[in-house]
Amino acid sequence: MNEKKLIYGCMGLGGSWDSSPLTLNIQKQADKVIETAINAGITHFDHADIYTFGKAEKVFGNYLKRNPSLRETLFIQSKTGIVLQAGPMQSSIYNLSKNYVLDHVDQILKRLSIDYLDTLLLHRPDPLTSMEDLAQTLQELKASGKVNTFGVSNMSVAQIQHLQSFLDEPLNCNQIELSLDHSFLLDLEVWVNREESPKEAGLNNLLTFSSLNKMSIQAYSPLAQGKYRKSDFKEEKDKLTFHLLEELAEKYNSSVSGILLAWLWKIPADIQPIIGTTNLKRIEESAIALNVNLSREDWYALWILAKGRKLP
Ligand SMILES: NC(=O)c1ccc[n+]([C@@H]2O[C@H](COP(=O)([O-])OP(=O)(O)OC[C@H]3O[C@@H](n4cnc5c(N)ncnc54)[C@H](OP(=O)(O)O)[C@@H]3O)[C@@H](O)[C@H]2O)c1
To answer: Degrees (nearest 5) of the Cα angle 292, 294, 298?
Structure first.
């Protein structure tokens, strides 16, 4: 059985998604969030070079500069490979070429004010970089001491296998969206051989594949980005799910956020939710939920209501 883990995702730190400068206020808000997460027992932090145009890493780095002894107690990861607004219609493009990745890792380390990353993740697959070239880049980074381990994000089973085939050391995680609201990975495991089977989109058996290869699934948007809260629900199923979440929050002496996370931890794979809330109370409630163990019946009831249909 894997130990339950919770990751704090820093996408919400650093202010707005533009090149406007950092202000003292933005830094102070980030300090409070980081401090709350650490005091709640969270030691694993997720970044990406694109978050708030680098400012999320910068505020974190500033915090570390003031608390240098913390570095060795934390597990710090970042991602690269997405170039924001570099295509037509403000679309992102992807770049995992050697020069881009090496240069961006240097920038990440500088902003975070650290010498090495515990893990570097490839943010999205780049169809213009061969997996063989990419593996060489990763090996170079490892040899330089700038990155300890590697993971991927938003990659299919076949892409992970392909990249892995050129690497000596194991890729340790795949960061992908997974929540009660977005349970596609689980759907793929149970709607087997059915006319209404979900379209696999390269993710077929990703859960099983991950367990088989001892890769963790870093579940992003685990709180469903606040979908389950008191509001005008778009669909009846969301309202029913929210009411059950509230009921279970009471039953397990937890919170709606806590039950959403406990739902993920119940899955017997190495699922590591990455919370992105900047609300201090929600961060604390999330960490406390590590103690909640949902019953089988409650877990299934949530899944069925959230899907709004019977299981096969
Ligand atoms: N690899 C990738 O492609 C990828 C993509 C997306 C995210 N990520 C990573 O995953 C992390 C988490 O993603 P996420 O931010 O989408 O996850 P999340 O924790 O599901 O969502 C956080 C957002 O939902 C809001 N929220 C949550 N519960 C709420 C409630 N009860 N009421 C009102 N608002 C609520 C939060 O607002 P408050 O701050 O007000 O609580 C915040 O805006 C990111 O920080 C990033 O590190 C990775």
So the answer is: 145
Give the pLDDT confidence of 137-176 residue by residue, as tens digits: 999 999 999 999 999 999 999 999 999 999 999 999 999 9
What's the CA gap between 207 and 70, in Å, rounded? 33
The one-letter amino acid at 1: M
Q: Which residue has the tokens 């604390």?
A: 284
* 279 C-beta closer than 6 A to ligand 1: yes
Q: Is 81 in the pocket of ligand 1 (CB under 6 A)?
A: no
Q: Residue 77 corresponds to which tokens in the numbers above?
A: 């990861």
- For ligand 1, is residue 278 a contact (CB within 6 Å)? yes
Round to whole Å and give the CA distance between 156 and 199: 13
- The three-class DSSP label of residue 77 is strand
Is the pTM higher than 0.85? yes
From 51, 63, 220, 252, active-site residue: 51
* 65's tokens: 């500069």
Q: In the CATH scheme, what is the homologous superfamily, with its name and number, of domain 7-232+257-292? A: NADP-dependent oxidoreductase domain (3.20.20.100)
